[in-house]
């Protein structure tokens, strides 16, 4: 494209909150064959909320939630924030969200004084967290995390997990001293425009794909809701770039849309990386496009804009 065409397109993009980092990326977008979407925070709102908590061995629910929140307090993950928020409300208001309005009246509510000290905190990307609380080893995460520590997921827990996952929720397992003690269900709603945008991409002859670190059952349930048929699940953060390369093998142009710190290798590996939303600085840095309005509609706008710009110069 001529410098003028690029300048015009960049200006049009900017009016939609679409930042385009250079003419090369702008030209590559019109050849797109696959758009790969991260799930959490990209297709979904990224506002995860705990929907249920189940304990198995007679441990007090409040005590259980405080331990789990203490273990997650140092994690930046959206799941961790959902858990801490839920436990906090349970702790101060017996879990009643209606009581939220009174939060400012409760002493100590803005401090973390209600949490236990978590020692030796470790985060395992794509798996969960580990620490030591009140002298006990605490694990919070998925099946992979439990399997690596040899924690047995007994039938009752597994059945509950499957039920959550079939309902498009993420089940989070909790173990104390390598014994499973409870499961939390976390839900994250689809962005309102998601299904319409997926439909729109198909009409443009572009194939939508979901890539996620979440488990297969949840991933498939969410994909079905949004109308995506091609799913890659249980992909560790480091593996997302490999997934991109597999789609590029036959020379296809791949756009990756993601929001998280985990997505930056994939954003960099794609022919065009699009960081969506407030994003993390590192995702924005790795991307060729930044979709500032956090709306998936701008993926279609970006493709339209590129196609129009390139056809105008030909
Ligand atoms: P996504 O690709 O959907 O953004 P991630 O790669 O960040 O997902 O995480 C994948 C899975 O790893 C989560 O669905 C969850 O099961 C587990 N996980 C990661 N971090 C945490 C955490 N802090 N607490 C509990 N589970 C976690
Ligand atoms: Mg994400």
From TrEMBL:
Coiled-coil residues: none
Highest classification ranks of the organism: Eukaryota, Viridiplantae, Streptophyta, Embryophyta, Tracheophyta
Protein name: HMA domain-containing protein
Assigned protein family: Belongs to the cation transport ATPase (P-type) (TC 3.A.3) family. Type IB subfamily.
Location in the cell: Membrane
